[in-house]
Write a structure and sequence with these properties.
alpha+beta, Butyryl-CoA Dehydrogenase, subunit A, domain 3, Butyryl-CoA Dehydrogenase, subunit A, domain 2, disordered N terminus, flavin adenine dinucleotide binding, oxidoreductase
């Protein structure tokens, strides 16, 4: 579909960050090329994280559309970490991809979240597409270094899909559409009229039928462009309906198989878990620097110390936070390994059993429960060991808690606890849902 001049003009008026601010880093990453090992990819993620951390507090306050930050993800190559090597991707597993998300989130939770959602959406066809679609879409995304957003919020009404000639037409609206404003492609999902069958499809973002409200101005994750979007008469050819037979106009049961296709859901739940953990780790690192440089010892003590780093209660709190974050990280890494192993074992055959899927989902549920609890505790608790001046808006320590608090409301963690209780007591694996 042709680009809408009016929509393009509107997007140009929205305050956004300037990609040229990172030109020095763009050139450096271009000269170095893509990393070629898992360790090198993690080092690249750390470099990006450090760049973002330098002014994350100021950018959070400004709340500008993160075009510069997405340009940094592009030039660094991080958008390609999971892509096939044949098309210029990194060829890494989700085990590495999750750690990359976590590293970026340490420096800036918003950008870590954007990267996580992109990696999930960019691999959607791997799960619910035909082999031809999977290869074609991976080639399109990786060769063009596209950033992918998604209008797939299950809490809203499904988009309605109708057939018009040799095309499908999407209509509807979503209250949340993470990263859409600054994306090149958007994943749409809806229900085919007259059926209960869902269809996923990739479409160009900048077109007349996709209108963003530009209304994301929330407490946390302020640079994720997660506002609402209206979808009006967006067309796709039948060939782009992921997992559907272009000749019969019916879902291909060998492609859209449950439980394999439903792995999309635990995969994104572990995306969430990793950027929660990254944000919490980032808060502890940020707080430690602040305590060392700025926090003063308490003067009204029977055992007065010369520096804050000698205070018993400060040392005790940091040690406790660190221990719990280490435990959470070990659990999250184990969950990532379990999922990556499942993909490696069954990615080609799509023959995963309900039990295998359920076991991995419970590793991920465990990781999400522990990381949610720990991240909320640590990001709030660091103020106890930094002092009242650390609450200053320009300091930016508050952004870590605000970011975690905002997204941990995505779906109630209480349901994950109940799900795990049923697994422990009844040996019951969860039924695939939009949140399990």
């Amino acid at each position: 579909m042709a680009t809408s001049i009016s929509q393009t003009a509107l997007q140009a008026t929205i305050p956004s960050s300037d990609p040229h601010v990172y030109r020095e880093h763009h050139q450096k990453f271009k000269d170095e090329g893509l990393p070629t090992s898992a360790d090198a990819w993690l080092e690249r993620a750390r470099q990006v994280s450090d760049i973002l951390a330098a002014d994350a507090a100021a950018r959070d306050i400004e709340n500008r559309s993160p075009r510069a930050e997405v340009s940094l993800l592009k030039s660094s190559g991080l958008l390609k970490v999971l892509g096939p090597i044949d098309y210029g991707g990194g060829g890494q597993s989700w085990e590495v991809g999750y750690k990359v998300i976590r590293e970026v989130a340490k420096g800036d939770g918003s950008i870590g979240m954007l990267l996580g959602y992109h990696l999930l959406w960019s691999t959607t066809a791997n799960l619910v597409g035909t082999n031809e679609q999977k290869d074609r879409i991976q080639k399109l995304i990786i060769e063009n270094n596209y950033f992918v957003g998604g209008a797939v919020n299950p809490r809203d009404n499904d988009l309605q899909i109708t057939e018009e000639g040799d095309h499908l037409v999407f209509n509807g609206a979503k209250n949340f559409n993470t990263g859409g404003v600054i994306s090149d492609l958007t994943v749409l999902e809806g229900v085919f009229s007259g059926t209960e069958n869902h269809i996923f499809a990739f479409v160009p973002t900048v077109q007349e039928g996709i209108q963003f409200a530009h209304n994301w101005n929330n407490v946390g994750l302020r640079l994720t462009e997660s506002g609402s979007v209206a979808i009006n008469q967006v067309q796709i050819p039948w060939a782009d309906a992921l997992g559907w037979d272009v000749r019969t106009h019916a879902p291909d049961p060998t492609v859209l198989a449950i439980p394999f296709g439903s792995l999309l859901l635990p995969t994104i739940q572990l995306v969430f878990t990793n950027f929660y953990l990254g944000i919490a780790l980032g808060s502890l690192k940020f707080a430690a620097k602040y305590t060392t440089a700025t926090t003063r010892p308490w003067p009204f003590s029977n055992d007065q110390k010369k520096s804050a780093t000698e205070e018993f209660y400060i040392l005790e709190r940091y040690g406790n936070f660190f221990a719990h974050l280490r435990a959470a990280e070990a659990l999250v890494d184990r969950a990532g390994l379990e999922l990556a192993t499942l993909y490696e074992r069954h990615g080609e055959s799509r023959s995963v059993t309900p039990r295998e899927r359920g076991e991995v989902a419970e590793w991920i549920a465990s990781a999400k429960v522990v990381t949610t609890d720990t991240a909320l505790r640590v990001t709030a608790g660091v103020f106890e060991v930094t002092g009242s001046r650390a609450t200053g808006r320009k300091v930016g320590l508050d952004r870590f808690w605000r970011d975690v608090r905002t997204h941990t409301l995505h779906d109630p963690v209480a349901y994950k606890n109940r799900e795990l209780g049923e697994y422990v007591l009844l040996d019951k694996i969860p039924e695939p849902t939009w949140y399990t």
